[in-house]
Amino acid sequence: MSRQVLVVSATTAEAAHVPPDLPLVITGMGKTAAAAATARALAAYDDLAGMTVVNIGTAGALRPGLAGLFEPGTVLNHDLSADVVRALGHDPQERLEVGASDVVLATGDVFVSDPVVRDALAARAHLVDMEGYAVAYAAQQAGVPVRLVKHVSDAADESALDWPRLVAASAVVLGEWLATEL
């Protein structure tokens, strides 16, 4: 059985160099848009056997010295009141295991550009984005394996506000990874 891949990206800018032979879904920014678009795309397939979702995109580095390409093994929903939900007797599923790497990605609807927010998140994660958790959650709910591939575009501080200028370099690296690894 051959492996089928669905590439998922938040923006066309991040996906600018996805090889043209790979199916691509652009979700829009944020967890809700990413979860809905990923679920809708997977629902369009008659058979998900052999399917893998690959979520590509940019991420902010939460710790000094992090640069380049990462494939996180764990993703957190960082802006969820998980302890409160748990205290109410429900499992918030705020932490998903997606691979073997020790790298942790925190996902939230907050565009992290404040060093105070960044430093607080750094206690729990290495990288931050706005869609990874949602894509992983939707894929796992559909019974489909998922890989998260993130390129550091900024330091999750004031430099993040330059994201529109920085994303092009990340898109090249992400496209090269897809061309060589899939």
Structural write-up:
- This protein is of the alpha/beta class.
- It has a single domain (4-181), classed as Nucleoside phosphorylase domain (Rossmann fold, 3-Layer(aba) Sandwich), CATH 3.40.50.1580.
- It is built from five helices and nine strands, in the order E-E-H-E-E-E-H-E-E-H-E-H-E-H.
- It has helices spanning 31-43, 82-87, 115-122, 132-141, 163-181, and strands at residues 4-9, 24-26, 51-61, 69-70, 74-77, 95-97, 104-107, 127-129, 146-154.
- Strands 1, 2, 3, 4, 5, 6, 7, 8 and 9 form a nine-stranded mixed beta sheet that branches.
- Helix 1 packs parallel to helix 4.
- The protein is globular, with a radius of gyration of 16 Å.
- The two termini are 15 Å apart.
- The model has no long low-confidence stretch (mean pLDDT 95).
